[in-house]
Amino acid sequence: METTLKRIILGVTGGVAAYKAAELARLLVKRGIEVRVVMTAAAGHFVGAATFQAITGQPVYADLWDARVANGMAHIDLSRDADLILVAPASADFLAKLAHGRADDLLSTLCLARDCPLLAAPAMNRQMWENPATRRNVDLLMDDNVELIGPAHGEQACGETGYGRMLEPEAILDAVDAYLQPKTLRGLNVLITAGPTYEAIDAVRGITNRSSGKMGYAVAKAAAEAGAKVTLVTGPTGLATPEVAETVAVTSAQEMLEAVEARIDETDIFIGVAAVADYYVLNPSENKIKKDAHILTLELAPNPDILANVSSLDKPPFCVGFAAESENLEEYAELKRKRKHLPLIVANDAKKAIGSDEVELVLLDDAGRHVLDKTDKATQARRLIDHVAKLYNAGNP
Questions:
Q1: Is 158 part of the annotated catalytic residue set?
Q2: Which of 111, 116, 158, 319 is catalytic?
Q3: Which phi and psi angles does 154 have, rounded to 5°?
Q4: For 345-365, how does the pLDDT look when each residue is reduced to its tens digit (9 = 90+)?
């Protein structure tokens, strides 16, 4: 996964979740990021400075009066070349310090004197998290543009269960990466279709396809990361719902069309990633069709072309199509793009892409072809959204 981070200050406060900060530091270093750890005095009761120094290869700081900083201004010097300050875990006490501008140790003073983004991953007992004082502090931090990552719900060290558990290091890393994506679609409404559709044959059988929905969900997530208000209209998948403004679950192509038409007037960009079934059964049975020795004949009729319906509107949004082909990939995709009057179409090899976590994409627009070399779908989705944003913003300066 791509990242623009180079240097990060990892603040570690007092709490049993401090042990997770060591793994977080390891993951950041593995990503090629220079990590400098700043600990509070309480953090030292849970994990030692030597651990972080061994993981990061950098000196660890805990003292506001650290003699290693020549000018005695560690709270200034440490943050000036940092791209981000991440406090994980962030205790209830430290959130209170941040909210009220207290600066009585190195980490709190450094956060107050920063000129880079500040993210915090809360970790505390569930009752501390739910306490009205903490809720007020959280509101103040949000007003001050301090981003909070988590907390999660789960079993806590005290034996209780609830919200307050620090997110796992991998989840924090993903959240940091998402937060730092360029907000190229800020303020825009993006409508995305994803997954397969399902056309009933009878009460238990139907016509569908092998689409997993992974690419569509990745595009929805990437668009949200880019600052868009995203509505995801999705067919049946087994995927976790991405954090977007609205998710609409549908089954059939007709239901997907109706969901799109109900929202299209407020849409700036429409991206049709869904693998919509081309046909539906004219007379599906309300009950299960019993098996016998006779040949079963189904009468099929063509489903509506959702993308064509949208692109043919009098004032269509910026439309992006997907073409999954098993042969003559670019030729067929370009024909589809011209037939539906699309500014951009995304071509991929159906035999290689469906169900896979990695994919190669070819973007076709008025300027020609743009190959996105094979990589994971999350990265490809971000690359695609970057291209969409450039085309859209060029036409809407």
A1: yes
A2: 158
A3: 170, -175
A4: 999 987 776 767 889 999 999
